[in-house]
Amino acid sequence: MKARVFVTLKKSVFDPQGQTIHDALGSMGYAGVADVRQGKFFELSFEGLPEEKARQTADDIARRVLANPVIESYRVEVLG
Amino acid sequence: MKVGVVTFPGSNSDHDAYHVVKHVMGQDARFVWHKDADLSGFDAVILPGGFAYGDYLRTGAIARFSPVMGAVTEFAKSGGPVIGICNGFQILQEAGLLPGAMLRNRAVKFLSEPVHIRVERDDTIATFGLPVGSVLTMPIAHGEGNFYLPDDELDRLEGEGRVVFRYVTKDGRLDDAANVNGSCRAIAGVCNEGRNVVGLMPHPERAAEPELGSADGRRLFEALTRALVRA
After folding, report:
1. What domain range includes position A72?
2. What is the C-alpha separation between B104 and B44, in angstroms, rounded?
3. Rounded Cα distance, B56 and A56, in Å
4. pLDDT > 90? residue B231
């Protein structure tokens, strides 16, 4: 069983990397790109855990380690 | 005074900090390995700069789970002086001992250059007895030093007098260009409520002797000595 964790900077937090990419896209000629936000993607593989336990574990790992709650938010998806 | 300098895998300023305490200040300095969980007998602890655990996930994110951090937390909660420099500051933030988090520098570049910081408080273990408004010159060397807290929490931090250093011009003025990494309110260093835990991004241990271009950093180590004598 796998869980995917998406970590992104909170909306209120300025993203210097996303801004740099956005500027580059503009100079490459891509029109209509209003904003770019960079984030992190983690894929956790579990063995021998029922789905609910896998979800809880992934959520716990995301909250304690993968994301910093001061600047980041996260979302967990469990793939059966 | 007996100062413990913590070495994490990836620390690179631990020897500089040790050198300043031992050879410049003439005090007792000991390295503390990150797997040690005993800080008994130390008067102060320094978390040095570097790239602990490579900072692969996020600066300080893995280091904060090192065995030594349990002991550092206990030491700090019992009033023990803890100074976090650069990566050490980031680790203290991740451990919840200091507020805020570091974003990438505003210009996304790693910055390695001398900066000027203004002392905002004279009642912390790193600035005890230093005149408020003093401008100190020392280098920064970081990619993530862009201090962030939401506005309401910044207001609270300022209200509690916990902003210890700000990036300023050479003559001590706030200026957007002097705030090189884009930190909220030009914050270069903060302290905890007890004022015994201080974190700053600039490197006082790399500017503690005139041969290095500035000896201003030494004033922080002298302040620590004064604070310990008082206590």
Report:
1. 2-26+36-79
2. 30
3. 24
4. no
CATH number of the domain enclosing B82: 3.40.50.880
Stretch B18-31: mean pLDDT: 97
Confidence of residue B230 (pLDDT cuts 50, 70, 90): confident
Is A22 a member of any domain? yes
pLDDT at residue A43 in the model: 97
Residue A80: pLDDT band by 50, 70, 90 thresholds? confident
ipTM of the complex: 0.87
Contact B182 A16 (CB under 8 A): yes
**Structural domain includes residue A60:** yes
User: Is a pLDDT exceeding 80 seen at residue B43?
Assistant: yes
Q: What is the total count of domains within chain B?
A: 1
Q: Provide the domain count of chain A.
A: 1
Taking contacts as CB-CB distances below 8 angstroms, the residues of chain B near A68 are 58, 61, 94, 101
CATH code of A62's domain: 3.30.1280.10
- Within 8 A of A65 by CB-CB distance, chain B residues are 57, 61-62, 65
The range of the structural domain enclosing residue B77 comes to 2-230
DSSP characters over chain B: -EEEEEE-TTB-SHHHHHHIIIIIS--EEEEEETT----TT-SEEEE--B-GGGG-SSTTTTGGGSHHHHHHHHHHHTT--EEEETHHHHHHHHTTSS--EEEPPTTSS-EEEEEEEEE--SSSTTTTTPPTT-EEEEEEEES--EEE--HHHHHHHHHTT-EEEEEE-TTS---GGGSTT--GGGEEEEE-TTS-EEEESS-GGGSSBGGGTB-TTHHHHHHHHHHHHH-
Mean pLDDT value of segment B12-39: 97
Are A68 and B101 inside 8 Å of each other by CB? yes
- Is A31 within a domain? no
